[in-house]
Amino acid sequence: MTIETITDLEDDRIDGYRDLTDVALRVRFEPENGVYIAESASVIERAVAAGHEPYSILMEDKWLARMQPIIHAIPDTPVYVADQALLEGITGFHVHRGALALMRRPPLPSVESVIAGARRLLILEDIVDHTNVGAIVRSAAGLGFDGFFVTPRCADPLYRRSVRVSMGTVFDLPWTRLDPWPGAVSTLQESGFAVLGMTPDADQAIDLDAFDVPERVALVLGTEGDGLTTAAATACDYAVRIPMRNGVDSLNVAAAAAVVCWALRP
Which residues are CB-contacts of 169 (< 8 A; sequence separation ≥ 6)? Predict the structure, then answer.
């Protein structure tokens, strides 16, 4: 293994770790360059276990002992260590989760390969908050869903915050982008999936506790503010809702996803 000490803020070996808090910059830089950032020892472990390849690892030297099993598993990967002040200058935040890894972004699978053999799938329509995306993926993985899709305007599931909030479960579920949207809904329907759209509208939707769950289900979750677009709602086979009380009309999309994934679990 190669362990190298970084002492210069401008060292070009750590260019991929710069300005990690600049969301607008990172969401352009990472997909264009075929990379993503994994944050924390446990997330890096999960990424490596899933077959993802790191370009390098960056950490404070006090985390070397904790990272030894990972480092020994990827002996050809450069490991860079730096003091806390320098790390903060490079990344833009206080790195307190052990380590960061610059990972090679795997190619997205085909829609057909995500569908194959699946019984429960999620579709995230235009959900732009990376924390919500990560929380939804964690619920889907924990409650037995087989994969998920994101629409063209949805946040990147491999953005650092999404990955961290998902606890690395984004590496366990196959996913890809569904394009064109919502035209690609027909691909799921032709494969035998009933496509369900979540809505709080009591006049148009079936209550989940009264819904006869089909064998194969794809659940569509809409954006944080407006919910499903009209075009997406029209493309769905059913509209379903979580019955609510005390004048509350709906839940945050991540909380709603957890409830519905549990109700539809295979």
Answer: 46, 137, 138, 140, 141, 142
Q: Which two tokens stand for residue 180?
A: 């064109």
147-176 per-position pLDDT tens digit: 999 999 999 999 999 999 999 999 999 999
- What residue spans of the chain are helical by DSSP H? 23-33, 41-49, 64-73, 84-91, 111-115, 130-142, 160-165, 185-190, 230-235, 253-264
pLDDT band of 1, cuts 50, 70, 90 = low
Given CA atoms 169, 171, 177, 182 in this order, what sign does their dihedral have?
negative
Instruction: Indicate the domain borders of the chain.
Output: 2-104, 111-264
* pLDDT tens digits for range 118-139: 999 999 999 999 999 999 999 9
In whole angstroms, give the CA distance from residue 208 to residue 210.
5
Q: Is the pTM of this model over 0.90?
A: yes
Per-residue model confidence as pLDDT tens digits over 74-90: 999 999 999 999 999 99
> What phi and psi values does residue 57 have, to the nearest 5 degrees?
-125, 140
> Would the CA dihedral through 129, 133, 139, 142 be positive or negative?
negative
Cα 136 to chain centroid, rounded? 8
Average pLDDT over the chain, rounded to whole? Answer: 94
Has domain 111-264 been given CATH number 3.40.220.10?
no
Instruction: Considering the domain delimited by 2-104, tell me its CATH architecture.
Output: 2-Layer Sandwich (3.30)
